[in-house]
Structure prediction request, 1636 residues.
Amino acid sequence: MLYDRLDREKVFRDPLYGYVKVYYKLIDELIDAKEFQRLRRVRQLAGLSMTFHTAEHSRFGHSLGAYEMARRVIENAEGIKDVLSEYEQIVFLCAALLHDTGHGPYSHAFEAVMKYESHEEMTVRVILEDTEIHSILDRYDKNLASDVANVIAHKGKFTIIEQLTSSQLDVDRMDYLQRDSYFTGALYGTIDSDRIIRSMKIVNDEVTYRASGAPAIESYLMARYHMYNQIYYHPVARSYELLLQSIFLRIKDLNDKGIHIDGYVSDFIDAITTHNLKSYLFLDDAYVNGFIKQLTRSSDPILNDLCNRLLNRKLYQVIDLKLEADQKKIERIRSKYASDPILLRYYFEESKLSQIAYRHTDDLDKVDTIKILLPSGKTISLEKYSPIVGGLIEDAKNTFSRIYFGKGE
Amino acid sequence: MLYDRLDREKVFRDPLYGYVKVYYKLIDELIDAKEFQRLRRVRQLAGLSMTFHTAEHSRFGHSLGAYEMARRVIENAEGIKDVLSEYEQIVFLCAALLHDTGHGPYSHAFEAVMKYESHEEMTVRVILEDTEIHSILDRYDKNLASDVANVIAHKGKFTIIEQLTSSQLDVDRMDYLQRDSYFTGALYGTIDSDRIIRSMKIVNDEVTYRASGAPAIESYLMARYHMYNQIYYHPVARSYELLLQSIFLRIKDLNDKGIHIDGYVSDFIDAITTHNLKSYLFLDDAYVNGFIKQLTRSSDPILNDLCNRLLNRKLYQVIDLKLEADQKKIERIRSKYASDPILLRYYFEESKLSQIAYRHTDDLDKVDTIKILLPSGKTISLEKYSPIVGGLIEDAKNTFSRIYFGKGE
Amino acid sequence: MLYDRLDREKVFRDPLYGYVKVYYKLIDELIDAKEFQRLRRVRQLAGLSMTFHTAEHSRFGHSLGAYEMARRVIENAEGIKDVLSEYEQIVFLCAALLHDTGHGPYSHAFEAVMKYESHEEMTVRVILEDTEIHSILDRYDKNLASDVANVIAHKGKFTIIEQLTSSQLDVDRMDYLQRDSYFTGALYGTIDSDRIIRSMKIVNDEVTYRASGAPAIESYLMARYHMYNQIYYHPVARSYELLLQSIFLRIKDLNDKGIHIDGYVSDFIDAITTHNLKSYLFLDDAYVNGFIKQLTRSSDPILNDLCNRLLNRKLYQVIDLKLEADQKKIERIRSKYASDPILLRYYFEESKLSQIAYRHTDDLDKVDTIKILLPSGKTISLEKYSPIVGGLIEDAKNTFSRIYFGKGE
Amino acid sequence: MLYDRLDREKVFRDPLYGYVKVYYKLIDELIDAKEFQRLRRVRQLAGLSMTFHTAEHSRFGHSLGAYEMARRVIENAEGIKDVLSEYEQIVFLCAALLHDTGHGPYSHAFEAVMKYESHEEMTVRVILEDTEIHSILDRYDKNLASDVANVIAHKGKFTIIEQLTSSQLDVDRMDYLQRDSYFTGALYGTIDSDRIIRSMKIVNDEVTYRASGAPAIESYLMARYHMYNQIYYHPVARSYELLLQSIFLRIKDLNDKGIHIDGYVSDFIDAITTHNLKSYLFLDDAYVNGFIKQLTRSSDPILNDLCNRLLNRKLYQVIDLKLEADQKKIERIRSKYASDPILLRYYFEESKLSQIAYRHTDDLDKVDTIKILLPSGKTISLEKYSPIVGGLIEDAKNTFSRIYFGKGE
Prediction:
């Protein structure tokens, strides 16, 4: 039953790939599961649409896209069917499809108050606990849920699948770089995922890329560089996210102190305190947008101020430390905010480069694992092969260093 | 003050046009008005994203796009600054920007229960009644609100602006054909609005197009043909819309009979009964999605069934009368549904071609008003000039003839 | 041996298709044959580069492109491998690759003086007579040359291959519409050959297209319409071609009268008088350009004038009979040129629409042979299926009616 | 008269820019000059079309393209009209248009036997000596020819124009990178020249680029990197060029020794020995192709062999020294060829990286002159501003190190 196919292949029209193709019954059912359909109501780029107004696409499309990338890897990467059994291929497809089901609304801000659980951990729970997704997986094969969860959690049981699902060059990134570029209208850094995939070859149980695919990978790295510089790290977008994060934090702080919050936030509180999965999965963008609107009338002056700022887009100011010449000004701001706990907690952020880089890119220093297969059969690292990658890595380290502050100098 | 400009031009990044450019202070303020910002929460293609999953773009982007098209017409159409004063140019820009502010969520379904007011009429009210938009317009110039409303309502005071805002070839259509194609991923029928605009020339107070622009206009008409065939009239999309319409209708019917509805629908009821503008503008996609979710537990069996169908996507069946050979089957269905008032009201639709064509395209028979300016200075109609347009018009008449039915044959 | 494959697939980078792929040894040898390499020196669009300066691409690229289209048909059209044996597939690939080897330089002008042999007939001779191409075909299989020639000559032995090679929708047209559009920079009418090919299905030994491919075919027909209107029938391009034709004609006339021509034209004379294949294949663009340069100093005043006009681009005037209002002027020109045999023969052309349409499109009235396969399994003609095709056909009939004249009114 | 404009703007359709626009009468006349028309017969990428079969575009298109880039710089770069008078603008347009008129056929191979004159020097002669181009320039303004020649020769009289015409980022490179990519079908490294140009601002008589244009410039540098790696330095292309160079060299050597050459090479000999301009300008691709064909029957065994190799594409073998592990093999080849003067002169090349880099890119170490204008008004070098440029520069230094050899190991 696990390998049952639909009578007729099902397709989803997609502007990036033409079609997303589904032929396993299992995949079809997973897409219809309510936890997966919920992704239609969670925007991929959270508040970034306040800066890039067309970035209104949901995680639903991205999840289908990551699945489609995985499907194409299975179809086109040389030798992959020799190392992955059909069962493992299905594990791969499921992992790609479901990898973001644990995302909350406005995810990065959300994680800041969830502390001890990341969205990956929530995804693992969606797969293992009492959900429609879990029961579907379970019905098809008793091992499937735990195997898919293993991949998401990087347990090392399926190393090739883990590498293809989450590394420096994986089906997740290949989709989101293309998709976010398409929907924001970012001009630079389109990538050619088909060519990357066609250049893949599994050699000695390792994913390698033929030298002919190297330019496509270089372009992918450039695309990534551009997307981070121009879109993901856009100062206004980060400023907006920071405001959201402060709202979440204030709600949490008030609740921790036992202060009643005059808005419809019970599921949110429940989710961040008990980490109850049902509550968590009840949350979506509409839910958060809803309580923020209510809290513009909150009796807590800080919450009231933060929510009004968000709706009226009175964002924090930002200074790029690299470009700002006036060192005294910077010191003045730092000491002003350091001296007041409220300002410091809700109205200030100094993002040191390495922090930001870490949060978004995870493991830039493992980029060397991209292996180029030479015509001779020898393998060398992309860094050795490609003269420009060294520069990209070296320089990507010190990208941004900024101060955000919400209450003047 | 009306002509005041921003100190620095403001731009919105747009995947279709590169940038949407704003330099009048007035326009900047209108975009920030809450009735305009509400368009961020109303999807351009309503439920079509259930069929084309990436069609999640909002009317906000389309409205900016129509404004940008208008701005480019003013910049590039030869002779336009001779016939439109700066005041009239501003009327044009405002009309283009605001033309969709009267749209409700899931607009086509909505209009079916609003009966005596169309979204154009609601737009006129947004401009003339007590709104932020109105007070902004009024503050800049006492005549502005009524002049912009005049254009929207086709009162004939500004004929050139009306033609450019709403005709067979206007800034509204030029934007939405491009935008909807981009976000659905429709393959055919991209249009070259820049070339169309650059070929415009105002001659004797009439909008004409130089012959060199004719191929671009032919492509625009082809694009329209393809978008209607493949996207807007997609049977599943229409089936989804029909279900929404039946839900709205059932709520209305229950309310008319004084039956209490067990969901959060008061603003909706208020909007469709009293046509109160505040209530109407409170509605957005999230509001509607919210009450539909609640009503899946409604005690009214019909409402309960309809809402559950929508969430579980158990759509109505559809038969294309042109392609179906079995006439008896068709008759059998027709008489089954005709014999039961409930089935007929909530579970059945026979869309005669002309109706659908009318509803979406309005005035196909006025296509002859597109005037081609020959090198000789003479003007002829596009139909005469372009050998293929005749075919397009003739054949566009009888596109679709379908039966939708929700309770089996 | 016929089915021998290269040790490693060979690819030609192509801007339109990514790659042209060759795996049969036979095809590789044919590409290297000198008669095929000669196509590098014959421009696809002859003198059109005088009007569209980037249209400098050769018939070599087009021939590889037609081959690649054929290859993709074999790979992707459903059911084709059931009706074509591997031998027949090779016949198809050869026919697509070689179909233009009989083209002379500036082919249309050339055919005007070759009278009783078209370029298709010359292609048949290249395949059957003593050439490198012939000996390669012969070496691989004794029947191959005559079978390929049969396809080119439409002898009816391989009807499916003939249809795919030369009909209203064939690998030749699919390539040249895309290629000529790409290299001229024509804006409209890009076509999606991959989608057309993927929609092909062989049913009952006939080529049909699934309904899902119909929009791609409609776009293909639009592309064709635009390319003829804007590029191939460009009045200046035709005027240039006409001048070339007059030069060829004058050389022929002088030679017929036994008058010595003071330029290096012996191979040309030999080719058009004896139709000797070696002489014919010696001709290429450089050869013709060479003698025209020499003949700008010819002692024959007509030849001298014609060649100088060509180099100095003093082209004939042109009047579009549809757009010209002054009927008397038209009559005046007609009678002036009719009254002088020299003017009439070398300096005048009245192209009646049907003639031109015939020469370039061949068989517009067979367009009905494009068959659409409905989901039900029934087949209907594209004309019946697609509402706009009727218009295209009807109107394409009376496209252009022009007078060209070289010596004033 | 110098500033006279055409009654109606003239346009050349171009796939890259839409249109190339001409409005000065002077420019129109220069395009019609026979030395400029000759560029239609000299391919932009010489023998590269043997490797990339669609790279058949001529220097004519590139020259128009460079002119169009210059025209757009004048239209769009902020402040340029304040620093360049209309006279200087015309000097700029002429320099951009004419900068390649001195190119011989198969230019790089040609320069190898022209030794003491580069194609830039020949361009200066075309502008200053007795040519149609010179007499047109002279007729419009007595200083024009020498001023345009000054720019080409980098005499320092018009520094801004020189920088815009020939530097690390100039109208010449902006056109050819785009054009060569388009016509070869290279996949990576498309550039956005419009955005680069729109970001230009002339500050204190220097060309700077606003920070918003930096990503476009980074992409331009990536494009350049890719074009050199994948196209211009393609080993087969270089191998082909090397063969041509050996043919030219052999002809020169034979002539130096007074040995008669049995082919039509007198103009060629004249050009490379006397550097006579008329002879030089008589040469074009057809001329060279012609004598090579003849010399396949040469009685000189070396010339005979080289020409036959070229026509039959029996190119030299190539070893990439970086990738080749077998050092002994390399030494064996080096010593074999070093020991035989004939082999060494005609059948061997060891290209050290720096040499090649120099020949094609000229002045990579001046890349720091690209100046980024910060919002603050301060200017910093692109290297400082853009983290990845350092990597590009550093690594571009040691690109290729190859041995080509024609007579086995």
Remarks:
- Chain C touches chain B through 29 residues (CB under 8 Å).
- The domain at 5-188 of chain C is CATH 1.10.3210.10 (Hypothetical protein af1432).
- Residues 353-368 of chain C have pLDDT under 50 and may be disordered.
- The radius of gyration of chain C is 22 Å.
